[in-house]
Amino acid sequence: MKANKAVFNTLSQVNSSIVHSSKVKLILLTVMTINLSACSSLGVEPWERDLLAKKEMALTSSPVDAALDDHIYFSKEASSGGKSFGGGGCGCN
Amino acid sequence: MQKKRSVKLSQQKDGYSVSFNAMASPCEVLIQTQDKRVVEQISRCVSAEVWRIEDKYSRYDSLSICSEINNSAGKKIAIDEETYLLLNFAEQCYQLSDGLFDISSGVLRQVWSFSGLSGECQQFPSSIDVSKVLSFVGWQKVTYDQHSICLPQDMELDFGGIGKEYAVDRCILLAKEITDEPILVNLGGDLAVTGPRLNKQAWQVAIEHPDSDALGQPQDMIVALVQGALATSGDARRYLIKDGIRYGHVLNAKTGWPITHAPRSITTVAPQCIQAGILATLALLQGEHAEQFLTEQDITFWARR
Amino acid sequence: MNNLNKKSKKTNKKVNLKAALSLATSALLGTSVVTAPVAQAKEADEWQFDSAFLVYSEVDRVSATEAIIAGTKTFDNDEILSLKLTVDALTGASANGAIAQPNAQTFTRPSGNGQYVTPAGETPLDDTFHDTRVQLNGQWTQPLADNITGSVGGHFSKEYDYLSLGVNGNVAYDFNRKNSTISMGLSYFQDTFTPEGGIPKPLSSMLVGDSSSSDWDAEFAKTRISDSEDKSTTDLLVGFTQVINRRMITAFNYSYSMVDGYLTDPFKVVSVLNSDGIAQDYIYENRPDSRVKQSTFMQAKYHFDDSLLNTVADVSYRYMWDDWGINSHTIDTRFTIPVGAASYIEPHIRFYQQSAADFYQPYIGDGKAQTGFVSADYRIGEMTAVTVGAKYGVVLNGGNELSFRIEYYRQMPTNAGFVDPQRLNSVDLYPVVEAVIAQVSYSF
Q1: In terms of domains, do C200 and C225 share one?
Q2: What whole-number distance in Å separates Cα of residue C282 and Cα of residue C285?
Q3: Cα–Cα distances in Å, from B54 out to A38, B43, B137, B237?
Q4: CATH homologous superfamily for B69-158+232-304?
Q5: Which of B88, B93, B279 sits opposite C34 (nearest CB)?
Q6: Distance (Å) from the C-alpha of residue A1 to the closest C-alpha of chain C?
Q7: What does pTM read for this prediction?
Q8: What is the pLDDT of residues C237-287, one digit of tens each?
Q9: Which helix (H) or strand (E) holds A69?
Q10: For residue C7, what are the domain limits?
Q11: Beta-carbon separation of C246 and A50 below 8 A
Q12: Is B208's CB within 8 Å of A7's CB?
């Protein structure tokens, strides 16, 4: 589909005059909109959610297990909830 | 296929540059650190990964899985998970492009041979030749699952349209595992960065104008890349003109004919290189509507006509 | 897979090219592999079901079987409907609150119909527990505005002697590129308890004697105050979720819960001992009619890299305290370790420790008349509990997941500083409770 193409030069300098292969290049400054928020502290960009999007990275990775466990511990211990509603719901306590 | 494989390290003002050849292209990795151990580790990992992917998916390498599939003569071939994922990706591109992007379209080169030097098509094929070869094109005829693929006889797969970009993304992932220092991976013009340079500065990338025979032509464009990837599709030096119509080297997998009125090259930005590459290629396949296609999709791009 | 792609392509090709490519790319590059896009594509127009069957079995005590089926449907505009049906059945014996004695003890069943005898040295268990419960939950979630998601739900649960109705509402606000989420939720439950034999009069003595005698029913009725009692529960939950980086996400919750009404357990009694430690009487327990619980909860999930097998660690801690004087610590840890491309193993350890309620007493002396609150229910006494277990899950062809889970749960009640009479040295006042939890789940 695609073969050899226009060659890119990657420039490691950030000076206003960019030097590469001992030739002076003119600069066309193109600011990409997608990166305006790169300075914020915590978090990831949308495309860095590959791992977070996995089911096992969900805060409650198995809602069914969580519901069953909540029911068991609600009926066997004095504490309930915290992660989600502690609620009433059964006469087991 | 014997290849001389070596990696060159060179120190620069604010880091290191690693260069090597792979996939018929010059490859470069820029690492903004003074820690030579990290640089060596990255240069080893990245070059090994690129060569690994090249060896695995090159259609020129008789030992590659690509050749194994292409030489299968219609028999079922076992594939691993990586291959399956790549096929899945190709499948999705095929679907998204309504069949315009097709990794089985490589056989069309049998009738469309563009000379590397002059860029001219040596023989302009007859439509009979084209339609004959076109019968061996068609991703929908390929069946595959997680463990195997069955490619009908006389068909060929070519990972060239996604392989290099995939390698860029794999390298970025690997590099991120090794270090948090800023890194740029450039495989013959398809490139991606792990993030901004130190002090949140952008990487400056020069896009050479397709017409420039020498470096340093004023048409070169400097792009500031903070995050994500760039890829280009198109090659101004490969085209032919017949009856006043300029044909590019990108072939329409559905008709078997080159796309007309397409820009000579398109560069796009995307979070991952493989996305950028596909977007550029898909745009090129839209011919005269390439720019409109990208604009509608809200994609940052540079097109050259 | 191929069919799904074809289908999704037709409906929204133009609009979603970028999104579709992102998805395809994350499938290609991410370790989550094929299942992610399949699931996403599926969710767009099909019901997704999770089902599970669980057996909970205590050594010598109750055992319960529970079945769940939950369906989720995501509509085009990100509206999500979830419905869940739970059925469980409970049988076996449960501690009645009285302590073990050097001699056999006789108790009247909560219904007043007959008696049971606990042999010497054994913890008294009431073996009349058997109940079947049906529970229905529905939840509707939808975007309310940019970055704001709202959710409302209803709850219905019915068992032979118990009815519970509940509603809840939740609002979540995403900001900082959806890396941060603040949420607030409210829930309200209204429960009605109608035990067979009625509600016992708190602190009254359990009637023990000849239940076939003519005046038994009249005498038994004197220990009852009503046929049914209510309780209401209001929960407020405030949460904050923060994505730290590509590998880590954290959550912090605060919850405030008010329970009002009948909070006593009508089946529980307290042993009244003489100075020798021998039970003279059993009185029905008495708990306050309100309880305010608060808790803080924090959780972190971390996705390790290849060098640690791409394991996902899930660690959470909860601190709970209430105005009954109970406070508790819960640490819950899971490691999801991929095994091959399509399966995983998930070890689980949970540690729980609680202090006793102010009015908890394992037994009372017979010298003084009881007036205040008292309960000998070990579940509000001092206790440490540990759960260890593991889950094995495998993604089958077609993306359905089958998993098995087995856990061992051990409750270790401890003495909260009570000095026991010499005579009781030979009996176990704080018996350990052991249980096994076995579960099979299937998602399709």
Answers
A1: yes
A2: 9
A3: 33, 16, 23, 24
A4: ApbE-like domains (3.10.520.10)
A5: B88
A6: 18
A7: 0.60
A8: 999 999 999 899 999 999 999 999 999 999 999 999 988 889 999 999 999
A9: helix A63-76
A10: 1-45
A11: yes
A12: yes
